[in-house]
Each structure stands twice: as structure tokens, then as C-alpha cells.
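dumping this here so i dont lose it
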């Protein structure tokens, strides 16, 4: 029993149920029969948003297409190509038509999902790890460590994403998915680290962090158990948006001819080839562009709805 006595049910103390509920919610209690936490409230809100389910459905289909293309087509990459059938329009056994090499275009669009999605997700995950680690250290310790990380971030932030990648990839023409991922990671972590650092600075002086210090918790424990869970939500939202941006950037590099090269199959490469035949054979551009646009848009919509769900002011 607390020395403060029971909570009053009448009088001045009874008029602040909202404050009591907020206190319970902040402590991770239960309100209205369900868990009161940022993530559980966000999930409860997301389930009621149709944009969330549309985005998840599209991304799930694209992910399965990239992971198990044999579920969608029995034709492999660059398999069964007949140059005599080049650029035939959609119809019959070829619902997306035939490409300039005489290959089934539907099969190539299906196989094109793997490198595109793989690069987008891999770049974002590596960039997220860099941003979380160094943003956490910079925001928590401040001083010389913060200044050093900030200056390095400024240097990379000054490099344009697509232009910087183009310069690097032109200098090393023999590259594949691994090299593309590395280059895009080097150029794609700066925004997330700034947001992570700002969030850490905002929460590192909170009461629960001060209580952890008074109880003798180490810096590592404070950062991992108290600061990180309360600072990472906005960074995760940016990461979701970043996947779409990276996919669009990778496709742009392929389209410009400095990204992936034949015999790789990707949506950006298909757009690069199709640009010369759009007037007479528009299907060569329309199908990969539709899949690419739907994937990028789904990541952007998912990031938007998650951001709205995590911010109570936007509900």
C-alpha cells in the first residue's frame, strides 16, 4: 500500500481521469481492456485503415514474386528466347508480349522483382543499422563524438543520391547487385541518422532515463533498454519511405545504363530497353513501369499510414 493513501474517488482528485489514464498509458498499463503502448495503439489504428491493407497486399505479392518466381511463371531468366518473335504484342501464351530479345515479357517482369526489391530492402536495412548505431552514440554522448559524426554526415549529405551513385558506378563498370547495394548504402543513411540523433537528444533527459542512471544502469543498458525503444519509431517510418526511394533510385540508375547490366533482369533495365520502342511497342514500357510504380507507391503509402498511426496528433 502506498503511503499516499488510496486514490480519491470524490473531491478534487476525482476530476482528472484523463491524467490518470495518461499516466497508466505512459507506464505501459492497460486501458479499456487492452494494452496501452505506442505500438499496440498504432496497430489498433492501422487495422482500420484501408490504405494499410492495400499497401501490405501489394508488397506481399511483390515479395512472394521476388522470393519464389516459380509460383508465377515456369520460365526462367533469359530462357526460351526466340529472336524471330521479337517485340510481339501481348496475346495468347504471352500475356505481356515478347521483348526485344524474343523472351517472354511476363516472365521477365516477374523475375525483375527480385533484384529491385532485394536492393531496396538491403540498402535500407544496412543504412538503418548505421543510422541507429551512430545516431544513438552521437545524440547520447554529444560533445566531440557528436561533432565528429555530424561532420562526416554533412560530407555524405552533400553528395546527391543519384548523381553520386552514377559517378561511382561509371568509375567501376563491372558491378552487380552487391556493388549497387554498397554504393547506395554509402549515399543513403544520412537522413535517418539525423532523425535518430534528434530523437535521442529529445528523450535522453526524460525522467525514466534519469531514474535508470540513479539506479546505476550502464550507458549501454540505458541506450538499449530506455532510449532506443522510445526514439526509433520516427526512424522506422523514414526507413519504410526510404525503401521506395531506393527502389526508384536503383531503377533510375538502371534506366540511365549505369546500374545493373545484362544478363541481369530488373524493371529498370526493362525500362531502359523499352524507351526506344515506346511508340510502336508501348507494352514494353507499360508493364515494368506499372509494377515499379505500384511497388514504390505501396512503400510510400505504408510509411505514411504508419507515421499517422504512431503520431496521436494525426489520428
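and the seq i came up w/
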Amino acid at each position: 500500500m502506498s503511503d499516499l493513501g488510496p486514490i480519491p474517488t470524490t473531491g478534487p482528485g476525482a476530476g482528472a481521469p484523463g491524467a490518470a489514464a495518461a499516466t497508466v498509458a505512459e507506464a505501459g498499463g492497460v486501458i479499456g481492456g487492452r494494452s496501452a503502448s505506442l505500438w499496440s495503439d498504432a496497430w489498433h489504428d492501422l487495422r482500420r485503415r484501408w490504405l494499410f491493407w492495400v499497401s501490405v497486399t501489394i508488397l506481399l505479392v511483390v515479395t512472394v514474386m521476388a522470393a519464389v518466381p516459380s509460383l508465377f511463371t515456369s520460365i526462367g531468366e533469359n530462357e526460351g528466347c526466340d529472336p524471330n518473335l521479337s517485340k510481339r504484342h501481348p496475346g495468347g501464351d504471352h500475356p505481356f508480349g515478347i521483348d526485344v530479345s524474343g523472351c517472354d515479357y511476363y516472365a521477365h517482369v516477374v523475375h525483375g522483382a527480385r533484384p529491385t526489391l532485394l536492393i531496396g530492402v538491403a540498402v535500407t536495412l544496412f543504412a538503418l543499422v548505421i543510422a541507429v548505431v551512430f545516431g544513438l552514440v552521437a545524440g547520447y554522448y554529444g560533445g566531440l563524438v557528436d561533432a565528429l559524426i555530424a561532420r562526416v554526415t554533412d560530407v555524405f549529405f552533400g553528395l546527391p543520391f543519384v548523381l553520386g551513385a552514377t559517378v561511382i558506378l561509371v568509375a567501376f563498370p563491372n558491378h552487380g547487385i552487391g556493388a549497387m547495394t554498397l554504393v547506395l548504402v554509402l549515399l543513403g543513411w544520412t537522413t535517418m541518422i539525423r532523425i535518430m540523433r534528434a530523437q535521442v537528444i529529445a528523450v535522453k533527459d526524460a525522467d525514466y532515463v534519469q531514474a535508470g542512471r540513479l539506479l546505476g544502469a550502464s550507458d549501454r543498458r540505458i541506450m538499449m533498454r530506455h532510449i532506443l525503444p522510445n526514439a526509433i519509431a520516427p526512424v522506422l517510418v523514414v526507413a519504410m519511405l526510404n525503401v521506395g526511394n531506393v527502389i526508384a533510385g536503383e531503377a533510375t540508375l538502371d534506366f540511365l545504363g549505369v546500374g545493373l547490366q545484362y544478363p541481369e533482369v530488373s524493371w529498370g533495365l526493362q525500362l531502359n530497353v523499352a524507351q526506344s520502342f515506346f511508340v510502336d511497342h508501348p507494352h514494353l514500357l507499360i508493364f515494368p513501369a506499372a509494377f515499379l510504380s505500384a511497388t514504390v507507391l505501396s512503400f510510400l503509402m505504408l510509411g505514411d499510414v504508419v507515421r499517422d498511426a504512431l503520431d496521436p496528433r494525426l489520428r
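The two ends are 38 Å apart (CA to CA).
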